[in-house]
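Homework help board

Subject: predicted structure for assignment chain

Our instructor gave us this sequence and asked us to write out the predicted structure in token form, then describe one feature. I got the tokens but I'm not sure how to describe them. Can anyone check?
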Amino acid sequence: MLPLQVEFVGGGPLALVVAFLVGTLFSAVTLHLAALWVLGDEPHQRAVKAAPAPVVVAMLFSQYNGAVMVALSFFTAVAVVRYVYELNIRGAVLLSVFYFSITTIFAFAFGNIFLT
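My token output:
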């Protein structure tokens, strides 16, 4: 008898690449929204440049405590945002706080829509 549903469990390199690409796309969109809100009219290319770094850190440290992963991702975002957007530390922290806030709100919203 054939199963009616197939589970895609097991991961592998393809799953990591897809998770990275989806996470980077989501991160770029939320970072661009935060930059528009905090800095005004900014080109989206800057968000695309800065988005992969926090995603890589989150993927690398996801096996550890969630608070450690969030803290390291936040500090990575501050450093990358400071470099890419050429901001001072205060501006980079402010933009990163808005970025993480928008990301959290969207993640909960999409989780409630697609995962229930």
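Reply (TA_rk): Your tokens look well-formed. For the description, you could write something like this. The CA atoms of residues 105 and 111 lie 10 Å apart. That's the kind of observation they're looking for.
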